[in-house]
Amino acid sequence: MTKVTIDTALEQHHLQKLIKQFPQAEFCLCEELAEEKELLLETEVLVTYGWKLTAELVRRMPKLKWIQALRAGVDNFPDGEITKQGIVVTTVRGIHGIPMAEHAFGMMLSFSRELLAFRGAQSQKQWRRDMSPNEIYGMTLGVVGTGSIGREVARRGTAFGMMVLGVNTSGNPVDGIEKMFSAKKLEVLLKQCDYVVVTLPLTDATYHMFGEQEFSQMKSTAYFINLARGQVVEEPAMVKALQEKEIAGAGLDVFEEEPLSPNSPLWEMENVLITPHLAALSPRYTTRAVDVFATNLAAYLAAESLHNVMNWKRGY
């Protein structure tokens, strides 16, 4: 019987669904896996967010063949040891699109309709009619990274009547995006956009993709939204661009160092909206993640190909 270890708390209805669907597997819930020597020795499949996954822990699981990550980004996983042991890693890439796209538009509309300023006026009991809310209709939206999240952002942009441009590695066409550019042509996109939404994975190629040069290429009236990874942006360059009004504002869910330092100037900028790396959160998150795992487990038990297999060289 295949031993499946889940090192995170699952609601009983999720666990019971898995037990009923896969009688040929034995499921073990264990949130402190490092303390369970016998379980480590027998685990063949590990389902995890990976926050506590170390190279040492991987070495202590000699029968481990497959890790199902319950998130899309696995940049903190001990990839060297995982690769050395020949362990397959799969992610839940694709389940984050809806909440993250809605988060992006929440930020965009907050800027466009001046909702932050109105909230500030409300806290002071001020009836202000001197502000000038704008529309996003007819604006140009640039989506940098056109995977599942980027495509959901693009769909909503089209629904709002925006012109949607996109960037990916190759510049190949993507359904729902009016014009695509390769990563080498990022400058061309930046110069046209009123809103830039970043949904890239973190790889060697995307590390510090946005620096002083890129922010200088944006319109002074443009807003920058980063839902990807903090390391995609050279943070001091972004701070400088905001301070010097090279760009109009930024909506930020991710940062180079998290939690964001209390000393960061970003906290006190009126043209910055900060959320603490939770754009992907949704009451439906776990259900979607478990569904992805169940699909993969069915394939694994049937000796078929798994979905969303991590490519360490590519970075996602």
From TrEMBL:
PROSITE patterns (UniProt xref): D_2_HYDROXYACID_DH_3
UniProt GO molecular function: NAD binding; oxidoreductase activity, acting on the CH-OH group of donors, NAD or NADP as acceptor
Matching InterPro entries: D-isomer_2_OHA_DH_cat_dom, D-isomer_DH_CS, D-isomer_DH_NAD-bd, NAD(P)-bd_dom_sf
Signal peptide feature range: none
SUPFAM superfamilies: Formate/glycerate dehydrogenase catalytic domain-like, NAD(P)-binding Rossmann-fold domains
D-isomer specific 2-hydroxyacid dehydrogenase NAD-binding domain boundaries: 105-279
Any Pfam family matching the protein: 2-Hacid_dh_C
Highest taxon in the source lineage: Bacteria
Entry keywords, A to Z: NAD, Oxidoreductase
Domain D-isomer specific 2-hydroxyacid dehydrogenase catalytic: 16-311
Family of this protein: Belongs to the D-isomer specific 2-hydroxyacid dehydrogenase family.
UniProt-recorded name of the protein: D-2-hydroxyacid dehydrogenase
Organism expressing this protein natively: Metallumcola ferriviriculae
